[in-house]
Amino acid sequence: MKAWEIQSADGVDALTMAERPDPTPGPGQVHVKVHASALNYRDLMTVTDPEPRGIAYPRIPNSDGAGEIIALGDGVTNVAIGDRVAGCFFQRWSGGKITLDAMASALGGGLDGMMASDAILSAGGVVKIPDHLSYAEASTLPCAALTAWNGLVTQGGVQAGETVLIIGTGGVSIFALQFAILHGATPIVISSSDEKLARASAMGAAHIINYRETPDWDAKVLEVTDGRGVDHVVEVGGAGTLEKSLNAIAVTGRIAVIGVLAKGAANTQMINRKSVQLNGIYVGNNEMFNAMNRAIASHALKPVVDQVFDFEDARAAYHCMRDAGHFGKIVVSV
Q1: Where residue 229 sits, what CATH number does that domain have?
Q2: Angle between helices 171-182 and 194-203 in degrees, nearest 10
């Protein structure tokens, strides 16, 4: 099998294509022929800064991938050869609350990931993908889609008629836009790109705000909500945008704290004053994944794939992620 490996802390250009022995699934495992692997910002950070994350060399990067089961280990009954599946971000988080053991089972971190031609996964760590999705589209679901679903739907409990503030137009943000619309909520999207904002508007964003042209975007959010604020914020910026998100949130609103893209500090006084609920979101479990897939299938929702790179050009995909010019997801075809 072929696999890209992190072999040092020297960054994207030091990623190495390696040949590994063809794998065999053990008891309770499945062998997946990988057809596509999607990138997340977390994957880029793992490649460029592996040592603070405790990455053992060599490590196959990327949490996200989709493919076909071609072999089963002993005792596997929940899936069959030929099933189209995606790997779960956490291989040992089937349901309930997250645990330290589950956190140690992240693909592309504690375990080898999906930037490879083949993967051995736990039989409980795969989910069947919706029939209407290509492998490239399905590969985007394990991290970005499930993170947005957990933050906005599972923990956020978004309802029809509520307002959702979405920061940016990356993978999590575009899935949040789609899920907000699916649930009848009113999305507000902010970005620094008029082109991306126009695309978000075409997808159904009710209000769009260019935060470079409108640095006080929180005040603009209050304006378009008649001073009330939004019911939900999908907070991918982190500390650098949290204070403005707190200004823009309605009393008793919910903020799904997901990303660390922007540096800064936040005055958290508003949390108490507005009785805001902050939920730390670390992807989601397999039960959430299956629930999300049912919704995706029933609404024939299509993930937004910005670019697809060939497997041999995987380094270029990481450079594309670093340049942050994408709208939606970046995928590598395997």
Answers
A1: 3.40.50.720
A2: 30
Tokens for 106? 């992240």
**187 — phi, psi (to 5°)?**
-90, 140
Q: How many domains does the chain have?
A: 2
User: Are 134 and 162 part of one and the same domain?
Assistant: no
Residues 21 and 118 in one domain: yes
The first and second tokens of residue 206, run together, are 């009710």
Whole-angstrom CA distances from 131 to 36, 142, 194, 245 are 16, 16, 34, 37
List, in sequence order, every residue forming a beta bridge with 210; answer none if it has no partner. 191
**pTM for this prediction:** 0.96
* Pairing state between β 29-39 and 118-122: antiparallel
Domain identity same for 125 and 185: no
Do residues 128 and 79 lie in contact, with contact meaning Cβ atoms separated by under 8 Å?
A: yes
Q: pLDDT digit string (tens) for 156-199? A: 999 999 999 999 999 999 999 999 999 999 999 999 999 999 99
242-252 pLDDT, tens digit per residue, is 999 999 999 99
Give me 244's structure tokens.
């403005």
